[in-house]
Amino acid sequence: MDSAIEAPAPQLTGELVRLLDGSLRIEDFVATMVHEAAQPLTAIQVLVTALRERGDDLDSDERDRLLADIDSQATFLRDLAGWMLEPFARQTVIFDELIGEIVERCRGCAPESTLVTELNAPGVVVDCETVRVEASIRNLVKNATTHSPATSPVLITTRFDGELAIIGVTDAGPGIPEQEWEQIFKPYTRVNDDGTPGSGLGLFVVNSCAVNHDGYARVATSGPAGTTIELALRAVA
Questions:
Q1: What pLDDT, on the 0 to 100 scale, is given for residue 22?
Q2: DSSP string covering the chain, please?
């Protein structure tokens, strides 16, 4: 008799361990998962709609680019699911290369916005949870594009201070009152609530990433001309 093939049960590690041991509330677990999945799902929907509506007018290169964008967004979703179920996987990567690749994928989530990069940490290496870092940068970029005028570019920079590899995301929004600079990194906190959609979890995810990489998340500058938020990770070299 043929024996049935059974898929191995997922390991209850990663975020699920925190859920089960009581250090993470189920509400926070579910809210974080939904929050992080929303961006790539929205990007996939936009890309599929473009293929459906304009497919006959696209040349093969444009069609291949859209398909590649869909594939990259789906890959991030798959990795995100693994991040929740499996031990956090760290990879040793070239910092500027990682940030450049992530920003390219972010363009699919914000097709109407202009993202400008200035990568100034050549050769710097980090040992990091790449999925967590990508989720954090997606949140920073989403916040920046949401609060900037459509005609204003969002600037993503990198630098190295001798110990930390630092990402900065600068918007052209109305600014954040200085007394709220620390508060915004707590869960379910929103500033300048003007009715735009949001759960108040994005910067909480960014801060959690910083803590897990011996770095920091902070408001570097903020004023009427815009805000720069930084995420710092401990560098290897």
A1: 44
A2: -PPPP-PPPPP--THHHHHHTTSS-HHHHHHHHHHHHHHHHHHHHHHHHHHHHHGGG--HHHHHHHHHHHHHHHHHHHHHHHHHHSPPPPEEEEHHHHHHHHHHHHHTT-TTS-EEEEE--TT-EEEE-HHHHHHHHHHHHHHHHHHS-TTSPEEEEEEE-SSEEEEEEE--S----GGGTTGGGSTT--SS--S----S-HHHHHHHHHHHTT-EEEEEEEETTEEEEEEEEEB--
Condensed to tens digits (0 to 9), the pLDDT of residues 191-229 reads 655 555 455 667 888 988 898 899 999 999 999 999 999
pTM of the model: 0.67
> CATH fold of 91-234, please?
Heat Shock Protein 90 (3.30.565)
Instruction: Say what the pLDDT of residue 121 is.
Output: 97
Instruction: Note the CATH number of domain 15-85.
Output: 1.10.287
* Structure tokens that stand for 24 in this block: 């993470």
- The rounded distance, in Å, linking the Cα atoms of 51 and 106 is 19
Which is more confident, 156 or 71? Answer: 156
Domain boundaries, the chain: 15-85, 91-234
Tokens of 51: 């293929």
